[in-house]
Amino acid sequence: MTLGVFLVALGFTILLAGSLQLCLLVDKRRRFWKDRNFPCTGRSRILVGDYGEANRTKHMQEINQELYREFKRRGLPLGGTILFIIQSVIVVDLELVKSILVKDFSNFHDRGIYNNPEVDPISGHLFALEGSAWRQLRMKLSPTFTSGKMKMMFETILGVADDLVSFLKEKSAGRGSVELEMKNVLAGYTADVIGSCAFGVECNSLRSERCKYRETANVVLNQTAGQILWTMLLMLFKPVASALKLKMFSKNIEAFYTDLVCGTIQHREQNKVQRNDFMNLLIQLKNSANPEERITINEIVAQAFVFFFAGFETSSTTMVNCLFELARNQEIQEKLRSEILKTCGTSKITYEMATSIEYLNMVVDETLRKYPAADSLLRKCNKTYFVPDTELKLPEGTFIIIPVYAIHHDPQYYPNPERFDPDRFSAANRASRHPFAYLPFGEGPRNCIGMRFGLMQTRVGLINILRNFRIRPSPSTPDQLKVNPASGLPVPLGGVNLIIERIGEQPVDN
User: Fold this and answer.
1) What is the edge-to-edge ordering of all strands in the sheet holding 177-181?
2) Most exposed of 201, 205, 306, 422 (fewest Cβ within 10 Å)?
3) Distance in angstroms (rounded) separating the CA atoms of residues 261 and 258
4) Residue 92 — left, alpha, or beta (φ > 0 → left; ψ -120 to 50 → alpha)?
């Protein structure tokens, strides 16, 4: 045998052995729970696990709901699943949810999302950071999201909400009503709010055909199957990925947000510009005399990045879901409008007005119950955990899925869950439910830090719309909203067309 033939044969043998080893490894991942006699579906398939239809024919929330119902029928507090190639569990019992999020938080303080701030700066945001790095940054950022800071930003949000009303008036001029695809309109509103508060820039997303900020965020939110697999591999093999200095996001996305933030900071510091917004608060932290409060430019870039791409989509989706339900439930809409006018009249909206309309809070809560902005909560088990009152144990590295959408649609907690009923959130009804049956913003130390801001821009937008316009379904409005299976967040598939009708001949203005 010549040397060349020998080397080819050797290479082929190594490749074959490597492929066989990889197949055995992947198959071992598929059988993870079965091999441990842990309750599971027993249907996991190679590479896709229990999520073979995810991002193709079903959204993740639908699959998690099916798994939740299956394990609940079997009387289990949780059940083992394989998230593509990652060992995971679906939690069913609400007391166990409470333990994971609060009581035993020290065992589940991380989300397990890949982050490597040294080589991938925008991955170093609060949502992904772990351990002491997360804890320190959370302590630094928490003061920027207090009620007092929200009041500071209120005028900025109100200005964008006024522009939203002006835009709707322009569209309905002459005829007094117009049919609009409201998902796009409201995404423009929230993009302008976040752009103004996070970066101090005028996105003009409401009136612009193309908005670079929204386009960049959509790239992050709407991942391809290949990108999802890449994300899973980074999460599963984090030490290797970190050692190889791999990145979750493309250079283009990193460059866009880095240039935007650095340019904003440079302009403000050189020209001594002061604004009541999120960016100004971050700059103050960067320049703090107290080293324990100080944050770096890269940390600012990462927080601004996640604030924009998460905030604009979740709030705009909540608003369009709410208007869809109000259009289909005119009596609820009229009651809400009456409460809004009783509190606000035709005067300028104040922060206190926006937060004190109890029926508005109930309507928004019911919207987030039926259409949670985050369909599930993710945690990672950082050491072996013995499930209370069972003989089950979760190995270190297990991913915990708390299926928020499934819990919110469980008839045990919400009878007739597909019905839109704000009275579910009256004080009496709220008190009668398990407190962990409602989780739109998570719970415990890792709950959503931007909750107040998200609710504020949602309330202000709805108040401005509803005291100027009546919302009606159009012939093209769907009977029910379907979730886009390809989206990272549960957003409606296709457009949501609604009729916007001016109220009276002299609509109220701010």
Assistant:
1) 177-181, 497-502, 469-473
2) 201
3) 5
4) alpha
